[in-house]
Amino acid sequence: QVQLVESGGGLVQAGGSLRLSCAASGRTFGSYTMGWFRQAPGKEREFVAAISRIGSSINYSDSAKGRFTISRDNAKSTLYLQMNVLKPKDTAVYYCAAARTMMAVTTTGSYDSWGQGTQVTVSS
After folding, report:
1. Is 32 helix (H, G, I), strand (E, B) or coil?
2. Which of 16, 32, 100, 123 has its CA 20 to 30 A from that of 74?
3. Where are the beta strands (DSSP E) in the chain?
C-alpha cells in the first residue's frame, strides 16, 4: 500500500480558494488512480474528484464540476485539488485515496489506501 499525507486545509471565507496537496510515499505513485473524497459531520464520505494514472481520465462530482480541479505530478508523487469559489457546504474533512485501477473510479470501495484527512472550513 501507498502512504498518503494531505495538507493545505484551513479556514476560508465563502468565495475564496484553497489548494489541497497529498504527498505519497514510495516509487509507485504513478501506478495508482488517485481520488479526493470528503466527509462532513454526520454524513457519509462522498466522492469529489478522481484522476487516472497519467491523467488521461478525470471525473468530478456534480458539486465539484466547474469549481474544483484535480491534478497530479507523478515526478513529485503528489496529488492536488484546487478549490475555487468555495461555499459553506464544502466544509468537510477532505481525504485523498489511491486505487489500483486504470480508470478514474468514483466509489470509496475501489480505493485501497487513504490519508488521514485535512479539515476545510468555509465561513459564510
Report:
1. coil
2. 16
3. 4-7, 10-13, 18-24, 33-39, 46-51, 58-60, 68-73, 78-83, 92-99, 113-114, 118-123
Instruction: Sheet containing 18-24: give its strands across.
Output: 4-7, 18-24, 78-83, 68-73
Averaged pLDDT, 3-18: 98
- First and final CA of the chain: distance in angstroms? 39
pLDDT tens per residue across span 52-111: 999 999 999 999 999 999 999 999 999 999 999 999 999 999 999 999 998 999 999 999
Reference 8, options 17, 22, 20; nearest CA is 20
Closest-CA residue to 60 (of 45, 52, 50, 72): 50
- Contact assessment for residue 83 and residue 18, using Cβ atoms and an 8 Å cutoff: yes
Q: Is 48 exposed, middle or buried (0-12, 13-18, 19+ CB in 10 A)?
A: buried
Pairwise CA distance, residues 113 & 5, whole Å = 11
Who's near 107: CB < 8 A, 6+ residues apart? 47
